[in-house]
């Protein structure tokens, strides 16, 4: 799957992420090969199973999850997956939170070439998994602002997704 452009590339975005924990943020940035906003940022230090690892005080943590938490929100029980399918990448624009099931669906779709209605359209910024995830997170109380930051789309676009104005071919889930 081709990585999708997201707004996680502005100075303001990274200033805000860094302000949460400057020391950790700087360690992440010097431990990866940070390139252009649309490129992968491969981890250059120790890895396990392809994932970047770093120790911040306590036990070792997974680098891309730490990056996600600083840039968006603590993922908690959610998995943080790579839309670039590059496990060592820590570019926040390539990271998406989701359930294990979302992750499996994404892999399955990637294996098939992701040739689906919405995604086949070159302008689509969201995958079908994203749409389901946004609807679930919204009904669980996530704000339009948080969702718009995470997915790099406007608040209006988020509300369209939530209200089912776009992506009508994806059925709303029961709960
Ligand atoms: Zn990447």
Task: Outline the secondary-structure elements.
Blueprint: H1 11-20, H2 22-30, E1 47-48, E2 51-55, E3 60-62, H3 63-71, E4 79-82, E5 95-98, H4 100-111, H5 117-120, H6 128-139, H7 144-151, H8 155-163
Antiparallel strand pairs: 1-2, 2-3, 4-5
The protein binds zinc ion.
Architecture overview:
The chain is mostly helical and 175 residues long. The protein has one domain (11-163). Helices cover 42% and strands 10% of the residues. The protein is built from 8 helices and 5 strands. The strands form 2 sheets. The chain has a 3-stranded antiparallel β-sheet. α1 packs across α2 (22-30), α6 (128-139) packs across α8 and α7 crosses α8. Mean pLDDT is 81; it is low at 1-6 and 114-123. Bound molecules: zinc ion.
The structural domain count equals 1
Give the mean pLDDT: 81
Shape: globular
Hetero groups in this structure are:
zinc ion
Sheet/helix structural class: mainly alpha
Low-confidence stretches: 1-6, 114-123
Total number of helical segments?
8
Q: What spatial order of strands do you see in the largest sheet?
A: 1-2-3
Instruction: Report how far the terminal alpha carbons are from each other.
Output: 28 Å
Radius of gyration: 16 Å
Number of separate strands:
5
Helix content: 40-55%
Most strands sheet: 3 strands, antiparallel
Strand content: 5-15%
Note the run of SSEs as H and E.
Answer: HHEEEHEEHHHHH
């Amino acid at each position: 799957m081709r990585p999708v452009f997201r707004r996680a590339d502005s100075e303001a975005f990274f200033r805000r992420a860094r302000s949460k924990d400057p020391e950790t943020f700087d360690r992440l940035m010097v431990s990866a090969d940070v390139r252009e906003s649309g490129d992968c940022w491969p981890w250059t230090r120790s890895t396990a199973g392809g994932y970047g690892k770093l120790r911040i005080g306590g036990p070792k943590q997974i680098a891309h999850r730490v990056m996600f938490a600083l840039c968006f929100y603590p993922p908690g029980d959610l998995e943080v997956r790579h839309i670039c399918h590059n496990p060592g990448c820590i570019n926040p624009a390539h990271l998406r939170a989701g359930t294990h099931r979302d992750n499996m669906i994404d892999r399955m779709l990637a294996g098939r070439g992701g040739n689906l209605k919405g995604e086949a359209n070159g302008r689509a910024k969201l995958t079908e998994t994203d749409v389901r995830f946004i609807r679930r997170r919204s009904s669980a109380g996530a704000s339009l602002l948080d969702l718009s930051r995470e997915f790099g789309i406007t608040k209006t676009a988020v509300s369209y997704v939530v209200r089912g104005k776009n992506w009508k071919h994806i059925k709303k889930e029961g709960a």
